[in-house]
Amino acid sequence: MVKNRGKQNWLRHTVIIVIIAVSLFLINTLWLGSTAHKTVSVNESQPKVYITKSGDKYHNVSCGYLHSSSIPIGKNEAEKKGYTACSVCGGTASGTITISHKESKVVKGNAWNSQNIILNVVLAVFAAPMLYIFFCCIVEKKEKFESNKKSREI
Ligand SMILES: [Zn+2]
């Protein structure tokens, strides 16, 4: 009889943990997963200037300093990398260059990608028993407190 009751308790615990795990998974996937961050490649058009292999200046396409090497680059990109305008040609841009760079974006509606699902399953499987144990501790403490109160009242 006692053994049977123990078994039933285990079944109840397992069912509750599974329910918590499934809820956690659904909350993560449908609610949090719907505003996931994703790295996307963004194309940007910038004024085109030229740099050399060794120098730290950027130049106009017709500048004499470009005789040995000339590497096209976006003006903003060049300035970001520490290049400054050439004092001879002024580093004036000619035309535009398309630069693609990576950007972190909030993407909606990609909750069901495999990476997200695996992560959420792992999270749910680990977090559910923890949450349940934590919850049980609170209930047990409360019950103890109540019974103490009762015994004192008697
Ligand atoms: Zn120059």
Q: What report would you give on this structure?
A:
The protein has helices at 2-32, 75-80, 114-153, and strands spanning 35-51, 57-59, 71-74, 84-85, 96-108. The protein is of the alpha+beta class and 154 residues long. It folds into two domains: 1-34 and 109-137; 37-107, no CATH class. Strands 1, 2, 3, 4 and 5 form a five-stranded mixed sheet that branches. β1 and β2 (57-59) form a beta hairpin. α1 (2-32) crosses α3. The longest helix has 40 residues, at 114-153. It is rod-shaped and about 100 Å long. The mean pLDDT is 85. The chain binds zinc ion.
Question: Count of DSSP helices?
Answer: 3
Order of helices and strands: HEEEHEEH
How would a crystallographer describe the biggest sheet? 5 strands, mixed
Q: Helix/strand/pairing class, anyone?
A: alpha+beta
User: Could you name the ranges where pLDDT drops below 50 across 5 or more consecutive residues?
Assistant: none
Number of strands: 5
Ends distance: 32 Å
Number of domains as seen in the coordinates: 2
Mean pLDDT: 85
Overall shape: it is rod-shaped
Estimated helix fraction:
40-55%
Ligands, deduplicated: zinc ion
The whole-angstrom Rg is 32 Å
Strand content is: 25-35%
